[in-house]
Design goal:
Blueprint: H1 2-16, E1 32-33, H2 34-42, H3 50-59, E2 65-67, E3 73-76, E4 97-102, H4 106-112, E5 122-124, H5 128-135, E6 141-146, H6 148-153, E7 159-160, E8 166-168, E9 177-178
Antiparallel strand pairs: 1-3, 2-3, 4-6, 5-8, 6-9, 7-8
Helix pairs in contact: 1-3
């Protein structure tokens, strides 16, 4: 499974950030041709088959990827730094959402608000546990509590990705509460 984990990270890199690594193009909605992806990855010296790609999509615990119904196209569900329209509809979020970050970023966040940085959206979670995991990837985790319901009433748009991650364009610092 370690081999599939590394390969999954590479697929994520291609589908979210650098399709040119596999010599492929993403359409305006982030979809890539599966045959082109498999062929392109294989040309980098990595071994991948359609069966392996299906296993990666099916077993990814974060549900990062989706196939179309015919399994001829694939895309990342969220997390892109390349401009794509994931065709997400704005919707009412839960009353509270959370954002996990590392403590080293807290001062800047409290001064400037939450920005998508190199991605298209700020990523938010429904629960503290997920936010802690996300924040811990880059250092000592800090969890920010956001009154998403109030933000929505104030005109902020929220989107729910196919894998359950809440997305928004920006979070003003006035909405941010640091959990102890």
């Amino acid at each position: 499974m370690e081999k599939h984990r590394r390969l999954s990270k590479y697929v994520s890199l291609i589908l979210r950030h650098k399709p040119e690594l596999a010599g492929i193009l993403l359409d305006e909605h982030g979809w890539a041709n599966v045959e082109d992806l498999v062929s392109g990855i294989s040309q980098t010296g990595r071994t991948i088959t359609m069966k392996m790609l299906e296993e990666i999509v099916e077993t990814d615990h974060k549900q990062r990827y989706s196939f179309n119904s015919e399994k001829t196209r694939i895309r990342a569900n969220q997390g892109h730094s390349v401009p794509v329209d994931l065709e997400l509809e704005a919707q009412m979020p839960p009353s509270v959402l959370y954002h996990g970050t590392a403590s080293v970023f807290l001062e800047a966040i409290l001064e400037e608000g939450l920005k998508p940085m190199g991605r298209l959206y700020v990523h938010l979670s429904k629960d503290v546990e997920t936010a802690v995991k996300v924040g811990g990837r880059h250092g000592k985790p800090v969890v920010l509590k956001l009154p998403a319901g109030n933000m929505y009433q104030d005109g902020q748009n929220f989107y729910l990705s196919q894998n359950g991650v809440w997305l928004t364009d920006f979070v003003d610092k006035k909405y941010i509460e640091v959990l102890p």
